[in-house]
Amino acid sequence: MRNATREKIHSAAMELFVHQGFGSTNVQDIADTAGISIGLLYRHYKTKDQLFHEMVAYAVEGLKRNINFFESDQSPKKVIEQFVDEVYTDMMKGEELANLLILINQSLLAGTATASKQNEEILRVNAGLLDATAQLIRKGQQLGEFRSGDAHEMAVFFYAAVQGLAEMKVLLKNNFIMPSPSVLTAFLFKEGE
Q: In the chain, what is the greatest distance between 2 CA atoms, to the nearest angstrom?
Protein backbone atom coordinates (compact mmCIF):
# COMPACT_ATOMS: atom_id res chain seq x y z
CA MET A 1 0.00 0.00 0.00
CA ARG A 2 2.91 2.31 0.79
CA ASN A 3 4.40 1.75 -2.68
CA ALA A 4 1.00 2.33 -4.31
CA THR A 5 0.73 5.69 -2.53
CA ARG A 6 4.24 6.67 -3.60
CA GLU A 7 3.40 5.75 -7.19
CA LYS A 8 0.26 7.93 -7.03
CA ILE A 9 2.35 10.79 -5.68
CA HIS A 10 5.04 10.33 -8.36
CA SER A 11 2.49 10.15 -11.15
CA ALA A 12 0.66 13.26 -9.96
CA ALA A 13 3.86 15.21 -9.34
CA MET A 14 5.29 14.22 -12.73
CA GLU A 15 2.17 15.39 -14.54
CA LEU A 16 2.09 18.68 -12.67
CA PHE A 17 5.83 19.41 -12.84
CA VAL A 18 5.87 18.78 -16.59
CA HIS A 19 2.70 20.68 -17.44
CA GLN A 20 2.79 23.50 -14.89
CA GLY A 21 6.46 23.65 -13.99
CA PHE A 22 8.11 23.01 -10.66
CA GLY A 23 7.66 26.56 -9.37
CA SER A 24 3.96 26.72 -10.21
CA THR A 25 3.14 23.41 -8.54
CA ASN A 26 2.43 23.26 -4.83
CA VAL A 27 2.07 20.27 -2.52
CA GLN A 28 -1.71 20.72 -2.28
CA ASP A 29 -1.93 20.41 -6.09
CA ILE A 30 0.07 17.19 -5.93
CA ALA A 31 -2.06 15.74 -3.12
CA ASP A 32 -5.29 16.67 -4.91
CA THR A 33 -4.15 15.19 -8.23
CA ALA A 34 -2.97 12.01 -6.46
CA GLY A 35 -6.30 11.75 -4.63
CA ILE A 36 -4.69 11.70 -1.19
CA SER A 37 -4.59 14.01 1.80
CA ILE A 38 -1.79 16.52 2.13
CA GLY A 39 -0.88 14.86 5.44
CA LEU A 40 -0.33 11.54 3.70
CA LEU A 41 1.86 13.24 1.12
CA TYR A 42 3.95 14.78 3.91
CA ARG A 43 4.36 11.34 5.52
CA HIS A 44 6.17 10.28 2.35
CA TYR A 45 7.97 13.53 1.47
CA LYS A 46 8.90 16.35 3.80
CA THR A 47 9.12 18.86 0.94
CA LYS A 48 8.25 19.30 -2.71
CA ASP A 49 12.01 19.62 -3.36
CA GLN A 50 12.64 16.19 -1.83
CA LEU A 51 10.00 14.64 -4.09
CA PHE A 52 11.37 16.40 -7.17
CA HIS A 53 14.95 15.36 -6.41
CA GLU A 54 13.92 11.73 -5.91
CA MET A 55 12.18 11.72 -9.28
CA VAL A 56 15.17 13.30 -11.01
CA ALA A 57 17.49 10.78 -9.35
CA TYR A 58 15.34 7.97 -10.78
CA ALA A 59 15.69 9.48 -14.27
CA VAL A 60 19.47 9.84 -13.85
CA GLU A 61 19.75 6.15 -12.92
CA GLY A 62 18.12 5.34 -16.26
CA LEU A 63 20.73 7.43 -18.06
CA LYS A 64 23.49 5.54 -16.23
CA ARG A 65 22.05 2.21 -17.37
CA ASN A 66 22.16 3.51 -20.95
CA ILE A 67 25.86 4.35 -20.59
CA ASN A 68 26.59 0.78 -19.47
CA PHE A 69 24.53 -0.60 -22.36
CA PHE A 70 26.36 1.59 -24.89
CA GLU A 71 29.72 0.40 -23.54
CA SER A 72 28.84 -3.26 -24.16
CA ASP A 73 30.68 -5.44 -26.67
CA GLN A 74 27.66 -5.81 -28.97
CA SER A 75 27.56 -4.52 -32.53
CA PRO A 76 27.16 -0.70 -32.44
CA LYS A 77 24.35 -0.93 -34.99
CA LYS A 78 22.48 -3.49 -32.91
CA VAL A 79 22.94 -1.41 -29.75
CA ILE A 80 21.57 1.72 -31.42
CA GLU A 81 18.71 -0.22 -33.04
CA GLN A 82 17.71 -1.72 -29.68
CA PHE A 83 17.96 1.65 -27.92
CA VAL A 84 15.92 3.43 -30.62
CA ASP A 85 13.31 0.64 -30.56
CA GLU A 86 12.97 1.12 -26.79
CA VAL A 87 12.66 4.90 -27.17
CA TYR A 88 10.07 4.41 -29.91
CA THR A 89 8.05 1.91 -27.83
CA ASP A 90 8.22 4.07 -24.69
CA MET A 91 7.10 7.18 -26.58
CA MET A 92 4.25 5.31 -28.28
CA LYS A 93 2.85 3.60 -25.20
CA GLY A 94 2.88 6.40 -22.68
CA GLU A 95 4.32 9.64 -21.41
CA GLU A 96 6.83 8.45 -18.81
CA LEU A 97 9.97 8.73 -20.97
CA ALA A 98 8.98 12.12 -22.36
CA ASN A 99 8.14 13.36 -18.87
CA LEU A 100 11.41 12.08 -17.39
CA LEU A 101 13.44 13.83 -20.09
CA ILE A 102 11.58 17.08 -19.48
CA LEU A 103 11.96 16.67 -15.72
CA ILE A 104 15.74 16.36 -16.07
CA ASN A 105 15.84 19.55 -18.14
CA GLN A 106 13.62 21.36 -15.65
CA SER A 107 16.00 20.39 -12.89
CA LEU A 108 18.89 21.96 -14.76
CA LEU A 109 17.01 25.02 -15.95
CA ALA A 110 15.29 25.76 -12.62
CA GLY A 111 18.68 25.38 -10.95
CA THR A 112 17.86 25.89 -7.28
CA ALA A 113 20.74 26.14 -4.83
CA THR A 114 19.63 22.95 -3.06
CA ALA A 115 19.84 21.05 -6.34
CA SER A 116 23.42 22.01 -7.20
CA LYS A 117 24.93 18.60 -6.32
CA GLN A 118 22.19 16.80 -8.21
CA ASN A 119 22.64 19.14 -11.17
CA GLU A 120 26.37 18.46 -11.17
CA GLU A 121 25.59 14.74 -11.31
CA ILE A 122 23.07 15.25 -14.15
CA LEU A 123 25.65 17.20 -16.14
CA ARG A 124 28.32 14.56 -15.44
CA VAL A 125 26.02 11.69 -16.42
CA ASN A 126 24.81 13.54 -19.55
CA ALA A 127 28.44 14.14 -20.57
CA GLY A 128 29.17 10.45 -19.94
CA LEU A 129 26.20 9.42 -22.06
CA LEU A 130 27.30 11.71 -24.90
CA ASP A 131 30.85 10.33 -24.68
CA ALA A 132 29.68 6.71 -24.61
CA THR A 133 27.39 7.36 -27.58
CA ALA A 134 30.15 9.12 -29.54
CA GLN A 135 32.50 6.20 -28.84
CA LEU A 136 29.81 3.78 -30.00
CA ILE A 137 29.34 5.82 -33.18
CA ARG A 138 33.13 5.87 -33.81
CA LYS A 139 33.24 2.10 -33.37
CA GLY A 140 30.30 1.75 -35.79
CA GLN A 141 32.09 3.98 -38.29
CA GLN A 142 35.25 1.89 -38.05
CA LEU A 143 33.19 -1.26 -38.67
CA GLY A 144 31.49 0.36 -41.65
CA GLU A 145 28.02 0.30 -40.04
CA PHE A 146 27.60 4.08 -39.67
CA ARG A 147 28.06 7.08 -41.90
CA SER A 148 31.22 9.12 -41.58
CA GLY A 149 31.17 12.38 -39.65
CA ASP A 150 32.07 13.85 -36.31
CA ALA A 151 30.85 11.25 -33.82
CA HIS A 152 30.33 13.78 -31.02
CA GLU A 153 28.22 16.04 -33.26
CA MET A 154 26.18 13.03 -34.35
CA ALA A 155 25.58 12.05 -30.70
CA VAL A 156 24.47 15.60 -29.83
CA PHE A 157 22.13 15.63 -32.84
CA PHE A 158 20.65 12.28 -31.83
CA TYR A 159 19.86 13.36 -28.26
CA ALA A 160 18.59 16.75 -29.40
CA ALA A 161 16.12 14.87 -31.63
CA VAL A 162 15.00 12.59 -28.78
CA GLN A 163 14.61 15.55 -26.39
CA GLY A 164 12.71 17.52 -29.02
CA LEU A 165 10.37 14.58 -29.60
CA ALA A 166 9.73 14.36 -25.84
CA GLU A 167 8.76 18.03 -25.77
CA MET A 168 6.57 17.67 -28.86
CA LYS A 169 4.82 14.64 -27.33
CA VAL A 170 3.90 16.65 -24.24
CA LEU A 171 2.86 19.74 -26.21
CA LEU A 172 0.92 18.03 -29.01
CA LYS A 173 -0.67 15.34 -26.81
CA ASN A 174 -2.97 13.18 -29.00
CA ASN A 175 -1.82 14.93 -32.19
CA PHE A 176 1.76 13.75 -31.70
CA ILE A 177 3.07 11.33 -34.30
CA MET A 178 6.22 9.47 -33.34
CA PRO A 179 8.70 9.07 -36.21
CA SER A 180 9.64 5.47 -36.97
CA PRO A 181 12.94 4.03 -35.73
CA SER A 182 14.29 4.17 -39.30
CA VAL A 183 13.68 7.93 -39.40
CA LEU A 184 15.47 8.38 -36.06
CA THR A 185 18.54 6.55 -37.34
CA ALA A 186 18.55 7.75 -40.98
CA PHE A 187 21.36 10.25 -40.29
CA LEU A 188 23.47 7.51 -38.72
CA PHE A 189 23.12 4.28 -40.67
CA LYS A 190 24.65 3.97 -44.12
CA GLU A 191 22.13 4.12 -46.95
CA GLY A 192 20.50 0.88 -47.94
CA GLU A 193 21.00 -0.70 -44.54
A: 59
